Amino acid sequence: xxxxxxxxxxxxxxxxxxxxxxxxxxxxxxxxxxxxxxxxxxxxxxxxxxxxxxxxxxxxxxxxxxxxxxxxxxxxxxxxxxxxxxxxxxxxxxxxxxxxxxxxxxxxxxxxxxxxxxxxxxxxxxxxxxxxxxxxxxxxxxxxxxxxxxxxxxxxxxxxxxxxxxxxxxxxxxxxxxxxxxxxxxxxxxxxxxxxxxxxxxxxxxxxxxxxxxxxxxxxxxxxxxxxxxxxxxxxxxxxxxxxxxxxxxxxxxxxxxxxxxxxxxxxxxxxxxxxxxxxxxxxxxxxxxxxxxxxxxxxxx
Length: 302
What we know:
- This protein is mainly alpha-helical.
- It has one domain (11-252): Rhopdopsin 7-helix transmembrane proteins.
- It has eight helices and five strands.
- A hairpin with a 4-residue loop joins strand 1 and strand 2 (266-273).
- The chain is globular.
């Protein structure tokens, strides 16, 4: 297998040939959403990794749709695999922190039951991380084999479905205040990704039977809205992590909120009180908020 070997093509290539101009140009939306997320000043390392992966996906996707060869195809798909499993591992960690927080809030820290319960959660997290890394490695190996590359969309959709399941499971552990702020936003993001995926699959399959220019819109719609949806999901899970940090900190008066920023309805986390930097300590990380004015967005001074 060589970099320049031609890989399977999409509807646009079957109608207009290579390069796929519409698909290549709209692939830049991944990179733009990733760059916007990466520009936020107070991200955790894991959040920066997730947004950096979006940028790399965009870069690889442009090359894949422009040249249509196997080298650029892997440059597109392997970062997608890394991104989705990184998201799963991060969500798993937030689930772990929220589970431990709930145990410690319901029991005294020194209570034998609380210690045993936290220990169990730690063991489960270790086993799941091992399973995720094993699955990610297997997925990447399978994707490099010509015969199995055709199953990439099915495998990726399955892994994405599992990520959705873990996000919703984590949401169920949060307090009522957090759920009130984030629940509908998470469902909106999931709905956006699912609908755009359905449009893409429908148009690609239909294009095999009816060669019509109308079906050219499916893949570009997928590119924009899946990038949009995953950007918002990253923000939503990060918000749940920060809320867990606040509930476990000695200064519980901090009040962060998450809201849509128009015109593209991208989620941003902002800090409304207090008006001075606050350092929050939690098991796996230390987060510093630096609000510059009331309800300032955390990402940058306004």
